[in-house]
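Feature request disguised as a bug: please show the residue count (119) next to Lsr2 family protein in the output. Example input:
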Amino acid sequence: MAEKVIRVDDIDGSEGDDVAKRDFELLGRTFTIDLSDDNDKRLHEMLDALAPFIDNAVEVKPAGKGRKTARAAKIKGYTNGDVRAWALREDIEVSERGKISDEVYAAFIETHPDAKPDA
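Example output, currently without the count:
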């Protein structure tokens, strides 16, 4: 028993002997679509018209998490929360959030010698 494959144009839904699977490239990627000769011609005209814009454009990469750089530890064995709690108990001005000043770290290490980071 024979089977007949009928291809349908993915753009306008037409059927015909000229409808075929057509491959095209865009931005280094290959795509495929079933098109008639007329729609294949239209596709390539559009790609040709688009080419100068793509050639002169700059790709925008999605924003991502920045690379974290390794920093020397300010203290060893304690958290910033520990430093803040200590500073508040000692009536040393320290922000609730954000960066802790080097002076506060130095004072904490002075009273907690085990917190001194390895050099």
